[in-house]
């Protein structure tokens, strides 16, 4: 199901669509270039709220309310942001280890399990526009609740039939996580237009140099 913006309803809680496959990997990739010069996308609570808004985890109205809250509660906002980054690194650690043929570390699994306990329960289905979503009671001032679809995505991907399709980009300077949706399941690069082309160019250069 396409992830659509959450909607607030003060009487019955929020409505939010279920997570799209690989959403947790997208969140893990907000830190890029893990094998070289790291590029951080999230520097503050407002950056995190912006990422949630861009990914339709928040509606425009929710995003504005959340940013107003962060300005009047800066200490709590920093705490929530720190918690979110800690969760991100646990998610990357879990799927990065599994994609490289290693076992997930217990500390990372424990961190994810804490977030799953703190995230709102998916207790009731309701209509959202032309589809369906979850009716939840959502406290957006704590990371597991704000990032509920990310947390759900990680749990669903770990326990579902698609885990074997999670890959680490073969470019050791990149190391992005991605879901391999290719027909043969042999994809090696996060993007052929980026890392794949660079690898082909490097191989061509080495062949020419060896001649």
Question: What does this protein structure show overall?
Answer:
The chain is mainly alpha-helical and 211 residues long. The protein has a three-stranded antiparallel β-sheet with strand order 1-5-4, with no helix packed on it. It has helices at residues 23-28, 45-54, 60-72, 74-99, 106-118, 143-146, 148-159, 192-210; strands spanning 14-16, 31-32, 39-40, 124-128, 131-136, 166-168, 177-179. The chain is globular, with a radius of gyration of 19 Å. The termini are far apart. A hairpin with a 2-residue loop joins β4 and β5. Helix content is 49%, strand content 11%. α2 runs antiparallel to α3, α3 (60-72) packs across α4 and α4 crosses α5. It has one domain (14-181): Jann2411-like fold.
Question: SS-based structural class?
Answer: mainly alpha
Total tally of structural domains: 1
CATH superfamily: Jann2411-like domain
The residue fraction in helices comes out at 40-55%
CATH class membership: Mainly Alpha
Topology of this protein?
Blueprint: E1 14-16, H1 23-28, E2 31-32, E3 39-40, H2 45-54, H3 60-72, H4 74-99, H5 106-118, E4 124-128, E5 131-136, H6 143-146, H7 148-159, E6 166-168, E7 177-179, H8 192-210
Antiparallel strand pairs: 1-5, 2-3, 4-5, 6-7
């Amino acid at each position: 199901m396409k992830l659509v913006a959450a909607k607030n309803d003060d009487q019955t809680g929020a409505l939010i669509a279920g997570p799209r496959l690989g959403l947790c990997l997208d969140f893990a990739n907000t830190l890029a270039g893990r094998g070289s010069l790291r590029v951080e996308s999230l520097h503050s609570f407002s950056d995190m709220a912006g990422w949630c808004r861009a990914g339709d985890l928040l509606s425009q109205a929710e995003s504005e309310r959340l940013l107003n809250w962060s300005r009047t509660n800066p200490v709590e906002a920093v705490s929530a942001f720190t918690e979110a980054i800690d969760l991100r690194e646990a998610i990357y650690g879990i799927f990065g280890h599994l994609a490289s043929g290693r076992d997930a570390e217990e500390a990372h699994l424990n961190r994810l399990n804490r977030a799953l306990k703190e995230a709102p329960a998916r207790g009731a289905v309701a209509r959202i526009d032309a589809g369906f979503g979850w009716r939840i009671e959502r406290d957006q001032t704590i990371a597991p609740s704000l990032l509920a679809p990310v947390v759900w995505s990680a749990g669903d991907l770990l326990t579902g039939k698609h885990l074997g399709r999670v890959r680490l980009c073969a470019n050791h300077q990149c190391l992005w996580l991605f879901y391999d949706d290719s027909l043969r399941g042999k994809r090696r690069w996060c993007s052929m237009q980026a890392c794949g082309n660079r690898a082909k160019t490097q191989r061509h250069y080495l062949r020419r140099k060896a001649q």
